[in-house]
Amino acid sequence: MGHIQKIGVTGLGGLERIKTYIIKTGDHIFGLALPCWSWTGTIDDRNRPRIKIDGNVLIVRRALYQLNGVPLEEGDKIISLCRNKACLRPEHLVIGTDRDAFLMGRMQCMGPGDIYVMQEMFKKGEIKLHHIEDCYDVTRPVAEAVVAEGGLIKRSLPMYSGQFS
Ligand SMILES: [Zn+2]
C-alpha cells in the first residue's frame, strides 16, 4: 500500500547514497523516447528498488520524490510508463491514483507501443490530453506524463528532479 515513509534529518545523505546505485544508461524500451535509469542495489520481493537508510528500509521510488521535496499523500501511487519496476527515470514515473495503478499495472491497459502512437498523434495535433484520459480512463497526470516523455509538453505536475547534485 502507499504508506508514508519517514525520512530522517539525514535525508540529503540518503539522496547521495541512492545516487550511487543508479545507472542512467538503462534499457531503451521501444516506443519510449528516453532510456530507463536502472537500479543496481537491492530489490524487494515485488522487484522494487529498496535501500536501508538510518535503519529504515525505504522504497527508493517513493524516497526519491520525498527527498526532492515532492510530498506524497496517503494513497498516492507511483506508476511507470515503461513497466520496468526497477526504473527510476523521472520522465518515466508519475504519481497517480489507485485506479491509475490498477489500469497501468495489473490491467496493462497502456503499453509503450500505445504511448508511441499517442505521442505521434499528439505531435500532429490529432489528439489532445483529454482523449488520452477518456480512451484509457486514466487521470490527467498520467496523460501529461505520456506526452511529456516524448518532449512534447512540459509537465505541470510534480516530478522528482533527476539532478542529483
Ligand atoms: Zn523506465
Give the C-alpha Rg. Answer: 16 Å
Major sheet:
2 strands, antiparallel
Report, as a whole number of angstroms, the end-to-end distance: 30 Å
Strand order of the largest sheet: 1-2
**By helix and strand content, what is the structural category?**
alpha+beta
The low-confidence parts are none
The total count of helices amounts to: 6
| Apparent shape | globular
Strand content: 5-15%
Cofactors and ligands = zinc ion
Ordered list of secondary-structure elements with their pairings:
Layout: H1 11-19, E1 22-23, E2 38-39, E3 50-53, E4 56-59, H2 60-67, E5 77-80, E6 93-96, H3 98-106, H4 112-123, H5 129-136, H6 140-149
Antiparallel strand pairs: 1-2, 3-4, 5-6
The structure holds zinc ion.
The site of zinc ion (ZN) has 7 residues, from loops.
